[in-house]
Task: inverse folding
């Protein structure tokens, strides 16, 4: 059974940065694309970017390019989302999602609630 | 960046009736469209990909149609477990790029 387990809830102040993790088990981590998607109240889901862990190639939504970094450590089957210079508008639930290709996602993490508030 | 627009924002339907959800792309995405269902407190779940291919375990009352810029998700006879938020997602052939619609909340009438 494929499982994506994310790190826990975070509370941050504006301007701070944060790294969320997503540990994959149950399939061959390097060969599955892994994306980060966030759910903003009132705005729906937002596709942030995606990584191919086998070679760490990554691609980003224009809306998030330069604001976030996606990385992966194959040795521990874990992907990361690094968020910089957090703003109140970054308050959201962040999900990792995985699939056999980069297009759509069969497997999802449980979500990580990030609250940014002064 | 392709913008996906879903309508209506909220749809009220009685159990047993048909629900029709719409998704429009700002430019053609061919048949590169997926649908997800999300219930409160849960992650989204894949319903459909390639516009009309049901994901594993998805019942036949769910169907998808459309191409280019106009897409529809139809639920033929609503069951209690179908009341949720539904999102459409477009995806590129290459390089990887994607975006979601803002969602349609399907509620019990």
Result:
């Amino acid at each position: 059974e494929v499982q994506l387990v994310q790190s826990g809830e975070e509370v941050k102040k504006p301007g701070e940065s944060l790294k969320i993790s997503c540990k994959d088990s149950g399939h061959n981590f390097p060969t599955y694309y892994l994306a980060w998607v966030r759910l903003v109240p009132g705005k729906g889901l937002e596709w942030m970017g995606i990584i191919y862990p086998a070679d760490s190639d990554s691609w980003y939504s224009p809306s998030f390019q330069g604001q976030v970094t996606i990385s992966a450590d194959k040795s521990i089957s874990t992907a990361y989302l690094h968020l910089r210079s957090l703003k109140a508008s970054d308050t959201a639930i962040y999900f990792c999602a995985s699939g056999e290709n980069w297009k759509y996602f069969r497997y999802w993490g449980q979500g990580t609630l990030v609250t940014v508030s002064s | 960046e392709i913008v996906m627009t879903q309508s209506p924002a909220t749809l009220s339907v009685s159990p047993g009736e048909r629900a029709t959800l719409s998704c429009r792309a700002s430019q053609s995405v061919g048949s590169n469209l997926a649908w997800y269902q999300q219930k409160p407190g849960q992650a989204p779940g894949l319903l459909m990909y390639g516009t009309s291919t049901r994901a594993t375990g998805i019942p036949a009352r769910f169907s998808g149609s459309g191409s280019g810029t106009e897409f529809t998700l139809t639920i033929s006879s609503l069951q209690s477990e179908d009341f949720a938020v539904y999102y459409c997602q477009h995806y590129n052939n290459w390089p990887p790029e994607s975006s979601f619609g803002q969602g349609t909340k399907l509620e019990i009438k």
User: Anything to note?
Assistant: The interface with chain B takes residues 33, 35, 37, 39, 43-47, 50, 59, 61-63, 95, 97, 102-106, 108-111 of chain A (CB under 8 Å). DSSP finds no helices and eleven strands in chain A. The mean pLDDT of chain A is 96.
